Amino acid sequence: MANTKSAEKRNRQNEERRIRNRADRSRLRTAVKKLRTAVANGDAETAKELLPGTLSIIDKTAKKGVIHDNAAARTKSRLAHQVAGL
User: Fold this and answer.
1) What is the pLDDT of residue 2?
2) Which domain covers residue 77, as residue numbers?
3) How does the average pLDDT of the chain come out, rounded?
């Protein structure tokens, strides 16, 4: 429980950020999942269409600090490699 006004404000800010980060992370996971499903089904055309948008979402999520830069780079690399292998 916050005892000062500044601690109360910090709690409000943290809650807003948590909600925002959760939405961004959900958007990221959904995009990656769609792309991985297309790859698993062998649907090269759909995978190639989804790849640029997914990479963009990964970059935006990393830029906001929701995921680490190296995690973003690793995910992008693996997805691109999977799509190229189709």
Assistant:
1) 86
2) 5-84
3) 96
**CB-based contact 28:57 (threshold 8 Å):** yes
Give per-residue pLDDT as tens, 35-77: 999 999 999 999 999 999 999 999 999 999 999 999 999 999 9
Give the residue carrying structure tokens 């980060």: 21
pTM recorded for the entire structure: 0.88
- CATH number of residue 68's parent domain: 1.20.58.110
**Spatial CA neighbour of 48 closest among 38, 56, 58, 63:** 38
Cα 60 to Cα 2, 3, 42, 46, 53: the distances in Å are: 33, 36, 27, 22, 11
Q: Total domain count for the chain? A: 1
